[in-house]
Design a protein that fits this description.
- The complex is a heterodimer of chains A (432) and B (476).
- In chain A, helix 6 runs parallel beside helix 15, helix 9 packs across helix 10 and helix 12 crosses helix 13.
- Chain A is globular.
- Chain A is built from 15 helices and five strands.
- In chain A, the strands form two sheets. In chain A, strands 1-2-3 form a three-stranded antiparallel sheet, with no helix packed on it. Chain A has a two-stranded antiparallel ribbon with strand order 4-5.
- Chain B has 476 residues and is of the alpha+beta class.
- Chain B has 18 helices and 21 strands.
- In chain B, a hairpin with a 7-residue loop joins strand 18 and strand 19.
- In chain B, helix 8 packs antiparallel against helix 18 and helix 11 packs across helix 13.
- The longest helix of chain B is centred in the first third of the chain and has 28 residues.
- Chain B starts with a helix and ends with a helix.
- The chains are: A mainly alpha (432), B alpha+beta (476).
- At the A-B interface, helix 1, helix 8, helix 12, helix 13 and helix 14 of A face helix 1, helix 2, helix 3 and helix 7 of B.
């Protein structure tokens, strides 16, 4: 079976999941099964088929599993959001269409994605600017103390989602040029291979940028995601563990220092360490969110309470679980589908990561390898940062769960990321 | 660059494994402590937003039901008012009071909490969670008769089916209207207290049934054994009198039970010894809380109490002779005395008492059937038969003739405990019984808290007769 036919087949389960999921929510709401769920399933399948045709025409050799996996996540996300709030689901569906459109545009416009290398400094500058945008007075939006949003006409735009792609493109291109230099001239000191001091320069620059991010956007999670992706790329480019060790050490030191000085960050860390402390729990921006996330998960147990069964709101108005459609959507999933359902979702992400890294190993040039590895790493790290935050592995921060959380910027940016991965894949697997 | 990419993927796998580990921690390993966390109000919200199941009497009538209270919440009402107030208990989570009674002991069923696997099927069917109904073994007609019999006097009636342990009647007077429980909390006479399981009363001579069981079952005595029934006799250095100072001379144990001769049973108890008495008390369920499906903190263990604490059966503070006639520091619950009667009735085999017959879901399917369970073989069937024959003489010609029923042989034992200041005339009448003597279907304990010189045979026995008559008329 050809790759494209496998992809086509893979879209069927995603559509079935969407149909079944909507059916479950409908039954739970009205105790009747309307054919509306079939309609939704058909529309979703139609949209995916359109995207599939675009891939079939333009990228015949691209990885066949990535798009169906993403469709699975997106359909799952739509059902969860619909169950939380119908209006949000309608908006999310619109963003899904926009995302697919931009996905097609990316594929067509950047068919030769290596042209991106030419604009690497422009891309880097734009990305940094995007990251700092939320601090610009008047348009910046502060949520829970972190600066992650920009007010657009009628919606809030999350520049970090796009900046992560730009930064990865820049790093992949930059490291392709310098990786040889970084590896050469290493010395072994006490059994540890150390590159010459001067080559720590770029590392220091990016570290500085991560610290600036931490201070300016005050978000430990995003800064961890960016710096982590950078370290991962540096490691792939040089195969030197010493960079990783030194880099992580520097990040840890910096985070420790700023945690003590930047109020919002230290609040988040305190909430993470003692979520059930009454004073911390009651404080504005305290541990209420994390504690409620854990309580919601405890209700889920092994198999969950079932679609639509989680308690999200208080009976007489007000919400029990804050931000269920964005930051805490993983907690809602765990509550309703249990440990088993949550593991299923994580498994889908892991499969996407596996396909991404596979693309990186198949790529025939360094830029392509680094680009695929970087995009995959930043994607996987984003999942780790938000799920880790919700499950108290690390302090909770406000990044989205890719393709599942509600959020236009997130879904559109991640479709662009997917398009780039498929572009790399098509070139790598094209018969010579 | 393949090697570092593979390693990077391995790292991602490790990171995701950590996520799975932490998710398991919250959903499975630490789920219980999270649910019990005082900051967690989800259980309370559950109780407010889930429609609790009905609680029904054995005849199908509704004892508790939930009605909409606005905003997607539910409120409990108790249609029969004060009839089963303490037994059914209260569930008013919105008022910030803890559930009590059956509302607490069957809370999981009433909220529809199931095991994990059945919740999957429920989820596949997309059903909203609703509570299951709890069908009790309680009999409203007999309960009404018991309440009418007590006629407003504080006291308690407990009736069991000796074959199954099913609680048919559980009366505690004064009672209260659960729909207006706020008044009850401050009302005189502690109506919230379930006297059937929480009161500690001196059992009086009804306890002689336990002593008699020990005497026969050890083989040391037979119903025809002759013991000196003269009065007074000295035990533990203090003289002990028979009722009214009556002196009987040498009489059989059957006669001694029929006329409730204190000196004979004190002598028997003393000769059996502390250890044997303690052993048989434990067999009957004394010294432990009843194994009833009822909240443990709403039940008391029966036994010898000193300064509010249960004494161990071997304690030197126990005066075995006076224990044997239900005096000393002995304190019992009416439920425990009903269990004593039931054990004798059921061939010496004590069944676990139970209030619930079955749990039924909204589609009428039985979720859980609470079948009869043996708590303990208290004595040999032959001992139980002999003891039953002795007790039937009590009703036929002794102190308990007021409990006689037309055409049905009844076995029983009276008791009249002195209460209040020494030398006063205040008494607590008791009667325990079972019927029919052959193949018994009902066992009962009745007590009236305080009468002015009333006797078990005159105050308590007639109530027992009326309640047993109602229960026996229904067949079964």
């Amino acid at each position: 079976m050809s790759a494209r036919n496998r992809e086509l087949l893979g879209l069927v389960p995603a559509s079935l999941l969407l149909t079944g999921g909507f059916a479950a929510v409908f039954i739970q709401r009205q105790a009747v099964l309307s054919d509306l769920s079939l309609t939704y399933g058909a529309i979703f399948l139609g949209l995916c088929l359109a995207a599939h045709v675009v891939i079939r025409l333009t990228l015949p050799h691209a990885d066949p599993y990535l798009f169906p996996l993403v469709a699975l996540l997106a359909s799952f996300g739509l059902v969860m959001i619909y169950r939380i709030d119908e209006d949000l689901a309608r908006q999310q569906a619109q963003w899904f269409v926009v995302g697919l459109a931009l996905f097609a545009v990316t594929i067509v416009v950047f068919r030769d994605y290596r042209r991106l290398e030419r604009y690497r400094y422009t891309i880097a500058a734009v990305s940094i600017a995007l990251l700092l945008l939320p601090r610009v007075p008047g348009i910046g939006v502060q949520t829970n103390g972190a600066y992650l949003g920009v007010r657009g006409p009628g919606f809030v735009f999350q520049p970090t989602e796009f900046a992560k792609i730009g930064i990865i493109i820049f790093l992949a291109s930059y490291l392709r040029d310098t990786r040889q230099v970084l590896v050469q001239g290493s010395r072994r000191i006490l059994g540890v291979t150390l590159p010459p001091l001067k080559h720590f320069g770029p590392l220091l620059v990016v570290w500085g940028a991560a610290m600036v991010l931490l201070v300016f956007i005050r978000d430990l999670g995003s800064s961890l995601m960016f710096f982590g992706a950078f370290i991962a790329l540096l490691y792939v480019a040089t195969n030197r563990l010493s960079f990783v060790v030194v880099g992580l050490g520097m990040f840890g030191l910096g985070a420790w220092f700023f945690a003590g000085t930047v109020g919002h960050v230290s609040d988040r860390i305190e909430a993470w360490q003692t979520p059930f402390d009454h004073a911390v729990y009651d404080r504005v921006g305290g541990s209420y969110q994390l504690a409620q996330s854990l309580f919601a998960q405890a209700d889920g147990g092994l198999f969950g309470q079932g679609f639509g069964q989680a308690i999200l709101d208080l009976p007489r108005g007000g919400s029990l679980l804050p931000a269920p459609q964005t930051d805490l959507i993983y907690a809602v999933i765990t509550d309703e589908l249990g440990l088993v359902g949550a593991c299923g979702v994580l498994l889908v992400y892991l499969m996407i990561a596996q396909r991404g890294f596979k693309i990186a190993t198949l790529a025939r040039d360094s830029f392509s390898t680094l680009l695929a590895a970087g995009l995959t790493a930043v994607f996987a790290l984003q999942v780790f940062v938000i799920v880790g935050g919700v499950t108290k592995v690390i302090p909770l921060t406000g990044v989205t769960l890719p393709f599942v959380s509600y959020g236009g910027s997130s879904i559109v940016a991640n479709f662009v990321l997917l398009a780039l991965l498929l572009l790399v894949s098509d070139r790598a697997r094209r018969p010579a | 660059m393949t090697t570092p990419i593979v390693r990077l993927f391995a790292l991602v796998v490790v990171l995701f494994a950590v996520l799975v580990g932490f998710t398991s921690r919250w959903t499975v390993f630490e789920a219980k402590s999270l649910r019990d966390n005082p900051l967690n109000r989800r259980a309370l919200l559950d109780e407010l937003t889930i429609k609790r199941g009905l609680i029904r009497a054995a005849d199908g009538s509704v004892l508790a039901r939930s009605v909409p209270a606005g905003g997607g919440t539910w409120r409990r009402t108790y249609p029969p008012g004060d009839l089963f107030a303490q037994t059914v208990g209260l569930s008013f989570p919105a008022r910030g009071i803890a559930n009590s009674g059956l509302e607490r002991s069957r809370n999981d069923a009433l909220l529809g909490r199931r095991n994990e696997l059945s919740s999957i099927f429920q989820q596949l069917r997309g059903q909203r969670r609703v509570g299951d109904d709890v069908e009790t073994t309680l009999d409203p007609a007999a309960q009404r008769t018991a309440i009418a019999g007590l006629a407003g006097r504080a006291g308690s009636v407990v009736a069991l089916d000796p074959r199954t342990g099913a609680v048919r009647v559980m009366t505690s007077i004064p009672s209260f209207d659960p729909n207006a429980f706020r008044v009850a909390r401050t009302a005189p006479g502690s109506p919230i207290l379930n006297r059937a399981t929480q009161a500690s009363y001196p059992p009086g001579s009804t306890f002689k049934v336990v002593t008699a069981a020990a005497a026969l079952d050890t083989g040391r005595y037979t119903p025809d054994s002759v013991v000196d029934g003269s009065s007074p006799q000295t035990f533990s250095g203090v003289p002990l009198n028979n009722d009214g100072g009556q002196s009987f001379g040498p009489i059989t144990l059957t006669q001694a039970l029929t006329f409730s001769v204190n000196t004979v049973w004190a002598r028997v108890g003393e000769s059996l010894g502390k250890r044997t008495m303690g052993d048989y008390m434990k067999r009957f369920g004394f010294y432990a809380k009843p194994e009833l499906d009822y909240p443990r903190d709403q039940m008391l263990a029966s036994g010898e109490y000193f300064r509010g604490r249960l004494l161990p059966p071997e304690s030197p503070r126990i005066d075995t002779a006076r224990l044997a006639i239900g005096q000393d520091k002995l304190q019992v619950t009416p439920l425990q005395m009903a269990e004593v009667a039931a054990a004798v009735a059921n061939g010496g085999r004590l069944m676990k008492p139970k209030l619930t017959a079955r749990v039924v879901d909204t589609d009428g399917r039985t979720r859980d059937r609470i079948g009869p369970e043996v708590q303990r073989q208290v004595m040999k069937p032959s001992s139980a038969r002999a003891l039953g024959a002795m007790m039937s003489r009590v009703v036929a010609e002794g102190t308990g003739t007021a409990a006689a029923l037309q055409g049905i042989e009844v076995a029983g034992k009276t008791g009249t405990a002195q209460v209040g200041p020494a030398g006063g005339n205040l008494t607590q009448p008791w009667f325990i019984a079972f019927a029919p003597v052959v193949r018994p279907r009902v066992a009962i304990a009745v007590t009236v808290e305080r009468t002015d010189g009333g006797f078990g045979g005159t105050e308590a026995a007639p109530i027992a007769a009326q309640v047993m008559q109602v229960l026996l008329r229904q067949g079964g």
